[in-house]
Amino acid sequence: MPAKPSAKPAAKPLWKTSGSVIHRRGLFARSAIAKGEPIIEYVGERISKAESSRRTEAQELKARKKGGGAVYIFDVNKRFDIDGNVSWNPARLINHSCEPNCEAIQTGNRIWIHALRDIAAGEELSYDYGFDLKIWRDHPCLCGSSKCVGYIVARRHWKRLASILEKQRKPAKGSAATTVPKGRKAAKAVRARKPA
Predict the structure, then answer these.
(1) What is the rounded CA–CA span in Å between residue 90 and residue 17?
(2) By C-alpha distance, which of 66, 60, 70, 61 is closest to 95?
(3) How many other C-beta atoms are found inside a 10 Å radius of the C-beta of residue 152?
(4) What is the per-residue pLDDT across 10-38, written as a single tens digit (0 to 9) for each?
(5) Residue 25, CA distances (Å) to 12, 99, 124, 126 in order
(6) What's the domain count of the chain?
(7) Residue 84 included in any domain
(8) pTM for the full predicted model
(9) Is 171 within a domain?
(10) Are 153 and 133 in contact, with CB atoms under 8 Å apart?
(11) Which residues, in sequence order, are CB contacts of 71 under 8 Å at separation 6+?
């Protein structure tokens, strides 16, 4: 059984859990948060790389069959990862955004979520999940940002993803165009394709 974090929580956390338009639930700023301020530690079960790979593959297979995502694993070092899919890790509820207001910062073997900019009271907390391009189809983005690329992929892959999407939109000679929806439309399309 994994150990719970030993650090004592602040008298009143900077965040609160509430309903989210991005993905059912999320974390929101309880009060104004200054740029650079640590908000919450991302905690969980410390697991080996082999176990991390096994859990990630199992979750991706489940997501392809039933829809959804929910991989909560953070890379820590060459030997271990943190699986944050535990009830005592509220940071797992922070949603992805293509225009995030937070970032995950690793210090030693600990991961903290910090404010990328000043955050207003009541604003939903978000960070870039940084997913790899090879699984882009499995993760439509619902962040609603004007900068949304339609899928949850790391910023370094945006240009390549745009190229892939453009090629899929252009029809081959003598065929109809393939439409690749963005954002909320993409999520609906993925749900529509899921097997019964």
Answers:
(1) 8
(2) 70
(3) 23
(4) 568 999 998 988 888 999 999 999 999 99
(5) 20, 18, 10, 12
(6) 1
(7) yes
(8) 0.74
(9) yes
(10) yes
(11) 55, 56, 59, 60
